Structures are given as C-alpha cells and as structure tokens.
Amino acid sequence: MPDVMFVRDLVNRGVMNDQGEKLGRIRAIAVDMESGRIAYAVIAFGAFPNRTKLFAVPWEILRFSSHDRRFLIDVAAQTLQSEPGYNALNEVAAKPSFVWLSGAYEYYSDKPDWEQKRQQQEQQDVAEAQRRRASITAGQRSKTEA
Questions:
Q1: By residue range, what is the domain housing residue 135?
Q2: How far apart are CA 32 and CA 117, in angstroms?
Q3: Minimal CA–CA distance to 37: which of 115, 114, 121, 103?
Q4: Are strands 37-45 and 14-17 parallel, antiparallel or unpaired?
Q5: Among 25-29, 94-98, 108-112, 120-124, whose mean pLDDT is lowest?
Q6: pLDDT (tens digit, 9 = 90+) per residue, 2-40?
Q7: Is residue 13 part of a domain?
Q8: In whole angstroms, what separates CA 130 from the centre of its chain?
C-alpha cells in the first residue's frame, strides 16, 4: 500500500538539504487542477518572519523522509540566500504560472508535466502533418500517372 498523507499534514513540515542544513518549512502546496497533480511547493526560507523569502519548488525534486518526517532537497542554503524569492504568498500565486514555474523547473534541472505534454502533442501534430502530406503527394502521383 502506498504511503499516503493529507496535504494539510505536509504544510509546515521542515525542509532540509542533503548536507543537513535547515532550509525552512513548506508554506503551501499548489495543485495543477487540470492534471490533478501537485505542481509545486512553496518553501518559506529564513528563520525570522520579517526576513523570510518564499520559493516555488517543483514537487518532483522534494523527497520526503519518513524517518525525520520532513522534506529533503538537494540545494545549498547559500543558493537560496542569494536568490530574490518572493515576499508574500500572493506574489507567488499572482505570477503567470507557466512562465515563472518553468523557470523554477529549469533552475532545479527538471521538466514540468505540462512541458512534457506540450512536447508530446507537438510530436503528434508533426506526425499527423507528415501523414497528410504523404497522402496528398500519393494522390497527386496517381492523378499524373493516369
């Protein structure tokens, strides 16, 4: 049976990197309503409320440690310190999702689900166009031969 948790139980869980540095907590979890999958988590980075920065992090790069009951991510604390991040949760949500989230996925070397779907659709469209072109060409050849 898969290990299942409610989203409400994941919010406020701690986030550490692989070097054992505490990076913050999960502040929110965003769901892609079209696919029904978790799109990203918002990590609140920083120890003090007035100095906390928020980061949208692709869900796929977070790993949950059942032992520690917290999330692990392979990113240095210094990297997050040097990035601008967001000041408020509504700023994260207000950004055009595909534009800034694609950047987050690229930053963390992952490919978002919608990008994979778009590429698959493009490949299908190209294959369909090639089939149509071949059919038209074959039809023109048979007319000239007749």
A1: 112-146
A2: 13
A3: 114
A4: unpaired
A5: 94-98
A6: 578 888 999 999 999 989 999 999 999 988 888 888 888
A7: yes
A8: 32
What is the residue whose two structure tokens read 């950047």? 103
Domain count, the chain: 2
Residue 12 sits in the same domain as residue 57 = yes
Q: Are residues 28 and 76 in the same domain?
A: yes
Hunting for tokens 């000239």 — which residue is that? 144
3-class state of residue 23 by DSSP: strand
Q: Which two tokens stand for residue 22?
A: 């505490």
Q: Are residues 25 and 60 in the same domain?
A: yes
* pLDDT surpasses 60 at 109: no
Q: Is residue 1 part of a domain?
A: no
| pTM score of the predicted model | 0.64
CA distance 16 to 20: 6
Q: Identify which has the larger pLDDT, 29 or 137.
A: 29
* Residue 145's pLDDT band (cuts 50, 70, 90): low
User: What are the tokens at 29?
Assistant: 């979890």
Q: Which residues contact 30 (CB under 8 A, 6 or more apart)?
A: 38, 39, 40, 41, 42, 56, 93
